[in-house]
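[Discussion] Sanity-checking designs against the backbone

I'm trying to build intuition for which residues belong where. Below is a structure token string of 110 positions. I'd appreciate it if someone posts a full sequence so I can compare it with mine line by line.
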């Protein structure tokens, strides 16, 4: 299955300083929302609360009760701080950078 179909999961990325950072992705319904946190519940029942701060990039006007919302967060210990929060992509909707034909532009080789 493609990553865009993932409900939730953790992955490790370079932190740019020779180390690594754990990040968490989740798509689900917004069950709670405040100025400082958001709670999502995925279709399989997985529920997680994420901290929101001034660095969280938000796309769209996410509200309690919204469905198909995606969060990406940095995980440190038991805390997951959202780096991005926005409405997910509906089936058939093009993702940013995707061409009408459904493929992504090729990367330059030179």
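Best answer:
Here's mine. Compare freely.
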């Amino acid at each position: 299955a493609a990553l865009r179909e993932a409900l939730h999961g953790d992955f490790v990325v370079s932190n740019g300083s020779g180390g690594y950072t754990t990040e968490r992705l989740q798509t689900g319904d917004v069950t709670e929302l405040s100025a400082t946190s958001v709670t999502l519940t995925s279709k399989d029942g997985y529920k997680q609360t994420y901290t929101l701060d001034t660095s969280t990039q938000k796309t769209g006007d996410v509200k309690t009760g919204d469905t198909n919302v995606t969060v990406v967060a940095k995980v440190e210990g038991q805390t997951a701080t959202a780096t991005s929060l926005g409405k997910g992509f509906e089936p058939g909707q093009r993702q940013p950078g995707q061409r009408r034909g459904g493929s992504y532009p090729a990367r330059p080789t030179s």
